[in-house]
């Protein structure tokens, strides 16, 4: 047994390189003209693309590293979502992994059906998600008295219309009753989606001949479009489920909410095991795992979704909505006194966080090509939580850096150990990993980065408002400090 | 809202007309309950004996969960920590008894040392020794875990301790899975005593080895009786300890207000260690009994029972000892009835669905006290 020093050094260098890349991305997005930002992003994208390109036999990042990179992108999105829910909004959630799984399975099912000549996935799921979204938005709006007619036309159900009117007219309806109404709506929407979507899909397939034929429908651009649609549908599906689930459950206190969300993760995993027996999805093959998912995730997609998550997160956090979300974490009573609708912002951050997780699930499913319930085990589901706490609760930079560093660290550890221990290495990895975790928690309980932010993610310096007394009284100079600092 | 007086309520109703529609949610819950009752009643009418058998297996499971749930509820009551490592302490308890019985034949010592003892008494003493050994090892382990991993983080944010608990849990599971420790395989467990099965058919009869039970009879074994006696006995012991002794008083005081308890001369750190040790002792006993009842052990065996026991504690109202017991029985029944009448893989889903529903109706659990306003 020789100690592979070269490999150890190489692993450490890899982690450093990845973290430097993350720093560069955040720096490139930071305060500079738009063209400079675009150039910076293009460079960040191009460097990795180059590293992934094979020149003869030489490749800087092999397929294994490529996989790690994609997983890191997906994990960043999941962890950012969790940081929004837990770090910024203060709701201790263990259910993020369940939403990740929901998104992954939903997206994978659509593309799987597509490559197997069945367009119904896109239509049924798409309609379901759209109608579900319309239900949630529509019924929510009805409460404030806007979308009555629109929803009535969309669903055509006199019953739903009546329900919407009820919610609208009788404000302050107990959460459980609202939940029941939305549940009825969701079930109806799903039913309608199946009834309407299937004939359309059939007509569509008939119009184009067999979809499976290697014709225009299986050309790369169409496939990529379907992939994008599938990922979006998966994400929105996860978000809608999180709305339904979060509406009643978010009223619980912090630890109770955590346990309920943990329960959600386990329920989702159990349903995944039963997809072919209790649920009508034989192609998901239950506990044996779903194989044959087309591997359509490219680095470009992973990068685009990563950027999307980072930019949306940052802009959300530094907006007035973000301040309202954080006020829930700081002090609910004070927030309420300031007129913040606590329940609304809890639900909002929960839904957005789950949306991120669902999107990440789609990215993951189409990179790995294989989904099994074991991947979405609740024990693995602690990983995003560990990452968020590791990086520092309420630090977006910490979450991003920790996601990348964590995956490359664990895999690097595995590779180093493999040389020493052979087949027992995976177990040893999970012996050493908790020790590292323990040491870090004992030495830095506030997380690696605390609440430090890098580059783009730093609090922006707001220009003074034109009508504010500060702007009229004092000339807009350097001595103006952003409020709340 | 519940405490609001009638006049306030009526004015609230005037401002919030939707409050009148509470019946929609209640009706939804009622429908769910009716569905469950329907399934239970029809399956009972179809085959009462089978139903009783399923309920009995649920009770057995529930009594084991109750033992584990005690540790969760006590620890959470005092330090507000979800001790994820508790399920793994339970696993260690099972493994200690496995080594004591299969490797060192510890359960046979009364026959070797105390000659002239009746065989029955020797088996009882031997088995009890094994259980006590497991409990002691688990207590020591829990105290070490508490001192090393949790105590330094007592003033840190709560999440740090939770992450450490997950870390300790991982460590115990995967350290145990190493080949020179326990190995990751499923190991057949050797019981310290023989299984005696009884059947109820016009009175209780003992089932002879090789004999098939008459059809339509209810089967139960001495394992079930031991688990029931041990679980109820431990409840009583714990109730006595917490309600009647000085250390129990100190535990209750620490759970209400640690700073004031310290001012009153209570060694709070010692009490916390004692609580961990006590919980671990029950978990160790639970581990032995669980392994005896379901004789195949593995280093990951503690994860799901541990989690379900925690859920049982939450269901009953965390911090409440009778609550943990009742919650555990409910969890056991839910699981057994689901396995019997719906499908085996759905048992976890049903257990957690029940938890979510109960929390929606009673946010602090069945025996839980209403939430205190944050200071």
Report on the structure:
The complex is a heterodimer of chains A (485) and B (375). Chain A is an all-alpha fold and 485 residues long. The termini of chain A are far apart. Chain A is globular and about 65 Å long. In chain A, helix 5 packs antiparallel against helix 6 and helix 9 packs antiparallel against helix 14 (342-368). The longest helix of chain A is centred in the middle third of the chain and has 33 residues, at 175-207. Chain A has a two-stranded antiparallel ribbon with strand order 1-2. Chain A has helices at 5-29, 34-52, 63-88, 96-115, 120-143, 148-155, 158-169, 175-207, 220-249, 254-273, 299-317, 320-330, 332-337, 342-368, 382-391, 396-421, 425-443, 469-473; strands spanning 290-291, 370-371. Chain A has a single domain (5-118, 211-457), classed as ABC transporter involved in vitamin B12 uptake, BtuC (Orthogonal Bundle), CATH 1.10.3470. Chain B has one domain (59-182, 219-361): ABC transporter involved in vitamin B12 uptake, BtuC (Orthogonal Bundle). The model of chain B is unreliable at 1-8 (pLDDT under 50). The radius of gyration of chain B is 23 Å and the shape is globular. In chain B, helix 2 packs across helix 3. Chain B has helices spanning 6-15, 22-46, 48-79, 86-103, 109-113, 119-150, 158-176, 222-244, 246-256, 258-263, 268-293, 303-316, 321-341, 347-361, and strands at 187-188, 197-200, 204-206, 218-221, 296-297. By secondary structure, chain B is mainly alpha-helical. A three-stranded antiparallel sheet of chain B has the order 3-2-4. Chain B contains 14 helices and five strands. Chain B starts with 5 loop residues before the first helix and ends in a 14-residue tail after the last helix. Chains A and B meet through helix 7, helix 8, helix 10, helix 15 and helix 17 of A and helix 2, helix 7, helix 12 and helix 14 of B.
């Amino acid at each position: 047994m020789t100690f592979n020093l070269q490999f150890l050094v190489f692993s450490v260098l890899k982690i450093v390189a990845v973290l430097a890349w993350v720093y560069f991305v955040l720096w490139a997005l930071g305060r500079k003209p738009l063209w400079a930002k675009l150039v910076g992003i293009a460079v960040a994208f191009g460097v990795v693309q180059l590293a992934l390109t094979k020149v003869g036999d030489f490749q800087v990042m092999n397929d294994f590293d490529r996989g790690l990179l994609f997983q890191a992108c997906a994990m960043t999105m999941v962890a950012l979502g969790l940081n929004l829910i837990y770090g910024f909004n203060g709701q201790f959630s263990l259910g993020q992994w369940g939403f990740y799984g929901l998104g992954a399975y939903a997206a994978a099912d659509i593309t799987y059906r597509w490559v197997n000549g069945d367009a119904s996935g896109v239509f049924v799921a798409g309609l379901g998600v759209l109608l579900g979204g319309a239900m949630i938005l529509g019924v929510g709006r009805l409460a404030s008295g806007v979308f009555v007619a629109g929803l009535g036309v969309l669903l055509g159900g006199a019953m739903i219309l009546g329900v919407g009117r009820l919610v609208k007219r009788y404000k302050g309806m107990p959460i459980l009753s609202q939940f029941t109404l939305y549940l009825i709506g969701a079930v109806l929407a799903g039913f309608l989606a199946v009834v309407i979507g299937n004939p359309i899909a059939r007509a569509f397939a008939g119009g184009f001949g067999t979809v499976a034929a290697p014709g225009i429908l299986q050309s790369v651009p169409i496939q990529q479009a379907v992939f994008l649609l599938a990922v979006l549908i998966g994400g929105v599906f996860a978000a809608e489920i999180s709305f339904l689930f979060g509406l009643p459950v978010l009223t619980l206190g912090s630890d109770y909410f955590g346990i309920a969300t943990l329960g959600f993760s386990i329920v989702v995993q159990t349903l995944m095991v039963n997809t072919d027996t209790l649920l009508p999805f034989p192609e998901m093959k239950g506990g044996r795992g779903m194989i044959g998912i087309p591997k359509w995730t490219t680095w470009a997609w992973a990068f685009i979704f990563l950027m999307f998550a980072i930019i949306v997160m940052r802009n959300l956090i530094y907006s007035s909505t973000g301040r309202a979300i954080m006020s829930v974490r700081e002090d609910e009573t004070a927030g309420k006194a300031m007129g913040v609708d606590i329940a609304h912002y809890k639900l909002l951050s929960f839904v957005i966080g789950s949306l991120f997780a669902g999107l990440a699930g789609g990215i993951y499913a189409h990179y790995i090509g294989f989904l099994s319930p074991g991947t979405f085990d609740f024990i693995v589901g602690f990983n995003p939580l560990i990452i968020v706490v590791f990086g520092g609760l309420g630090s977006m930079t910490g979450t991003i850096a920790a996601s990348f560093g964590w995956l490359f660290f664990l895999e690097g550890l595995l590779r180093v150990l493999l040389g020493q221990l052979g087949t027992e290495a995976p177990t040893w990895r999970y012996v050493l990993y908790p020790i590292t975790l323990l040491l870090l928690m004992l030495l830095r309980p506030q997380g690696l980065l605390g609440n430090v932010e890098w580059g783009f993610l730093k609090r922006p310096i707001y220009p003074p408002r034109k009508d504010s007394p500060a702007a009229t009284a004092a000339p807009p100079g350097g001595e103006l400090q952003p409020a709340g600092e | 809202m519940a405490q609001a007086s009638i006049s306030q309520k009526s004015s609230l109703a005037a401002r919030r007309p939707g409050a009148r529609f509470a019946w929609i949610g209640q009706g939804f819950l009622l429908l769910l309950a009716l569905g469950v009752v329907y399934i239970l009643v029809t399956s009972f009418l179809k085959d009462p004996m089978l139903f009783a058998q399923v309920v009995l297996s649920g009770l057995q499971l529930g009594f084991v969960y109750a033992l584990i749930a005690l540790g969760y509820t006590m620890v959470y009551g005092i330090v507000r920590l979800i001790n994820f490592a508790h399920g793994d302490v339970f696993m260690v308890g099972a493994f200690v008894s496995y080594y004591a019985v299969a490797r060192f034949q510890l359960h046979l010592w009364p026959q070797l040392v105390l000659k002239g003892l009746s065989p029955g008494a020797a088996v009882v003493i031997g088995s009890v020794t094994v259980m006590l050994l497991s409990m002691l090892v688990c207590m020591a382990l829990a105290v070490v875990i508490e001192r090393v991993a949790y105590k330094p983080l007592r003033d840190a944010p709560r999440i740090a301790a939770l992450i450490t608990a997950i870390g300790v849990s991982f460590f115990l599971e995967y350290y145990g899975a190493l080949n020179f420790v326990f190995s990751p395989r499923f190991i057949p467990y050797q019981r310290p005593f023989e299984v005696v099965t009884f059947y109820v058919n016009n009175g209780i009869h003992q089932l002879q080895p090789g004999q098939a039970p008459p059809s339509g009879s209810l089967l139960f074994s001495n394992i079930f009786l031991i688990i029931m006696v041990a679980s109820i006995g431990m409840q009583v012991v714990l109730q006595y300890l917490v309600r009647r002794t000085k250390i129990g008083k100190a535990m209750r005081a620490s759970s209400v207000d640690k700073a004031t308890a310290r001012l009153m001369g209570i060694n709070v750190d010692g009490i916390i260690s004692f609580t961990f040790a006590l919980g671990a002792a029950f978990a160790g006993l639970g581990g032995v009994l669980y392994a005896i009842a379901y004789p195949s052990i593995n280093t990951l065996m503690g994860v799901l029972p541990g989690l379900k026991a925690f859920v049982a504690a939450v269901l009953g109202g965390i911090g409440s000892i009778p609550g943990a017991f009742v919650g555990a029985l409910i969890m056991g029944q839910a699981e057994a009835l689901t396995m019997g009448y719906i499908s085996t893989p759905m048992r976890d889903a049903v257990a957690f669905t029940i938890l979510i529903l109960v929390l929606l109706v009673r946010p602090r659990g069945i025996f839980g006290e209403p939430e205190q306003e944050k200071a």
